[in-house]
């Protein structure tokens, strides 16, 4: 199961962190941009190449001490097809260095459309009967607002391709409570209900370490809810954003 590999990576590096690969052109060192622009010009291709070279440097520096990376798809999509190509190249390079790759795409749809997202990011696409891997990530973040109809297609691809998914449960952003903290008729909040559904969906993808292939995104910025959900979801692996710049700290996730 996909998260078994992640857990083994955590054990190997003795480090439970994931490095976000959310490159902003303004923050990339000037010499990297200048080299890329000299070859491709100040174009979308040149910008995308600068992102890739920056990512390679980060991956080389981190691969022995950090088990996983999480590229945010939006930072690549904003540079068009050249950026999307760099997303694929980044995933391939990280995996060649033994890192687990979580594609942060927060995809959300139903039926064959969600199946297409899952095949693109986690599975294979068939061309005249020939199965071809597209992006090749190990896991994908998913918005499950559409319910089981939006998750089942991903579960099927994960089962076939030995991949995993992380469902948004209690997110780290300040306004998350506007919806996620609302109580339903049974007295449970929406985030509690979503967490319980993760446990139910995960029963289809059991792993050898006690965690399923369905994880939950739970923000470090809400430590009380994080602790509550950790107790309530014993078989659900957590992806915990919000550490550092968003205000979450070590005490919040301990």
Quick take:
This protein has eleven helices and nine strands.
List the helices and strands and how they pair.
Blueprint: H1 2-13, E1 18-21, H2 30-40, H3 44-62, E2 68-71, H4 74-77, H5 80-96, E3 100-107, H6 111-121, E4 124-127, E5 130-133, E6 139-142, H7 148-161, E7 164-170, H8 177-180, H9 190-202, E8 214-218, H10 223-232, E9 238-239, H11 250-253
Parallel strand pairs: 1-2, 2-3, 3-6, 6-7, 7-8, 8-9
Antiparallel strand pairs: 4-5
Structure description:
- It is a single chain.
- This protein has 254 residues and is of the alpha/beta class.
- It is globular, with a radius of gyration of 18 Å.
- The strands form 2 sheets. The protein has a 7-stranded parallel β-sheet.
- It starts with a helix and ends with a helix.
- The chain contains 11 helices and 9 strands.
- 47% of the residues lie in helices and 17% in strands.
- The chain folds into 2 domains: 17-67 and 74-107, no CATH class; 109-245, Aldolase class I (TIM Barrel), CATH 3.20.20.
